[in-house]
Amino acid sequence: MVRTANRVLLGLAGLGLFALGGAVLVGALDLPRHWGFDLPGWWPFRGPDDVVLGDEGRTRWRDDGWWWPVVFAVLAVLLALMLWWLLAQLRRHRLSEVLVDSGDGAGALLRGRALEGVLAAEAEAMDGVSRADVVLTGRRRTAPEVRVGVVLEPYAGPAEVLGRMNDEALRHARDSAGLERLPAEVRVTAARHGAERAV
Questions:
Q1: What's the predicted TM-score (pTM) here?
Q2: How is the chain split among helix, strand and coil, in percent rounded to 5?
Q3: Per-residue confidence at 80, pLDDT binned at 50, 70, 90?
Q4: CA 87 – CA 65 distance, rounded (Å)
Q5: pLDDT in tens, 155-180
Q6: Where in the chain is the domain with CATH 3.30.300.30?
Q7: CA 159, CA 50: separation in Å to the nearest integer?
Q8: Which residues, 6 or more positions from 9, have their beta carbon under 8 angstroms from its beta carbon?
Q9: How far apart, in whole angstroms, are the C-alpha atoms of residue 34 and residue 47?
């Protein structure tokens, strides 16, 4: 949901800025006079000397009793939406537990942090892996997903490490949790190291 909201907000902001920039550009460059066309009556900026918000627009409803309550209500709603969006960005969508089929029909709960820790430890035990960070996401009743960040030593081969991650660490986690599938996204980066001198 957060990804969809981000895309919608970015799209709307982009369209709004594009439309506003185009309207200002048409008036600022005085294109109607140079190219010989008329602007519609509702066009906000009509020439190079026009301002974004004139005196009439700023003071039109200031003396009306409904104006200031509406302004504050709109600003409060915008502030609440921006805070919701900010908190949604900061919140980590980490799965706290995984439902494991225990065979008795009731099921058991496996802590997400425990599974993350085991996966990270097994990945870091591989030759060529300097560090591994694991985050479990998704839903506990359906197939959970894993995001793994792996930092490789300079001598390690990414293809070999990815193959071992799939064949060993991820397969062990899938089998131990009794999951039919465990989709994983593995991001590989190289550890920083100084240049070696040849003597």
A1: 0.49
A2: 45, 15, 35
A3: very high
A4: 35
A5: 888 888 888 888 888 888 888 777 78
A6: 97-190
A7: 61
A8: 85
A9: 11
Work out the average pLDDT over 179-190: 84
Q: Which amino acid is at 176?
A: S
Q: What class does CATH assign to 97-190?
A: alpha beta
Question: Residues 50, 27: contact at Cβ < 8 Å?
Answer: yes
User: pLDDT tens-digit profile of 116-139?
Assistant: 888 889 888 988 888 888 888 877
> Containing H/E element for 55?
helix 55-59
Nearest 10 degrees: Cα torsion 59, 61, 66, 71 = -50
Token representation of residue 103? 């065979």
CA–CA separation, 68 and 78 (whole Å):
15
44-76 burial, b at 16+ Cβ within 10 Å, e below that, comes to ebeeeeeeeeeeeeeeeeeeeeeeeeeeeeeee
| Tokens representing residue 190 in the block | 């190289």
Six token digits for residue 12: 């709307």
Three-point CA angle 191, 194, 195, nearest 5°: 120
Question: Amino acid identity of 188?
Answer: V
